[in-house]
């Protein structure tokens, strides 16, 4: 019984697969040696989060989460590592900051200086290009 495929073509395909597997091995080795920029939050970062969570400026959801951390239910390291991401209290506390993050993202997209955005805490709103008058009408404005 004879093999119905062209042996030379089959051998070329095998060689190509072997070559790509070798290339993949090289890429995997190189990728394993690349260090990530961030190794996550440091102990100092976690202490800063805790300090803010205990401050009067912290939103109530974050204060509630801090009480749970103080009670030993979880730690800020658990939150930072994502181990507590499915916890409703963690989700509520993190959701409070989403509007600020969205404003910061928008400010960066508009070209504002990142240092200014970070320093301000609250990015400046984009300039109003509407020259047709006020965009909010009140009864007392009539």
Structural description of this entry:
- The protein is mainly alpha-helical.
- Helix content is 57%, strand content 0%.
- It has helices at 7-32, 43-53, 60-70, 76-81, 88-95, 98-109, 114-120.
- The longest helix has 26 residues, at 7-32.
- The model has no long low-confidence stretch (mean pLDDT 82).
Total beta strand runs: 0
For this structure, the quaternary state is single chain
Low-confidence stretches: none
Distance between the termini: 97 Å
Beta-strand share of residues:
under 5%
Radius of gyration: 28 Å
For the residues shown, what is the average pLDDT? Answer: 82
Main sheet properties: none
Task: Describe the secondary structure blueprint for this structure.
Elements: H1 7-32, H2 43-53, H3 60-70, H4 76-81, H5 88-95, H6 98-109, H7 114-120
Helix pairs in contact: 3-5
Could you name the key traits of this structure?
mainly alpha; 0% strand
Nutshell version of this structure?
By secondary structure, this protein is mostly helical.
């Amino acid at each position: 019984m004879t093999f119905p495929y062209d042996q030379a073509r089959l051998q070329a395909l095998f060689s190509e697969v072997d070559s790509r597997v070798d290339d993949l091995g090289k890429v995997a080795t190189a990728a394993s040696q690349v260090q990530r920029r961030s190794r996550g939050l440091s102990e100092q970062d976690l202490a800063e989060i805790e300090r803010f969570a205990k401050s009067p400026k912290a939103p109530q959801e974050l204060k509630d989460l801090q009480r749970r951390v103080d009670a030993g239910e979880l730690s800020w390291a658990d939150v930072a590592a994502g181990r507590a991401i499915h916890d409703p209290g963690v989700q509520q506390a993190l959701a409070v900051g989403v509007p600020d993050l969205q404003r910061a993202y928008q400010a960066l997209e508009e070209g504002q200086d990142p240092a200014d955005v970070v320093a301000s805490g609250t990015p400046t709103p984009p300039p109003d290009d509407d020259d047709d008058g006020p965009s909010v009408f009140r009864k007392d404005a009539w």
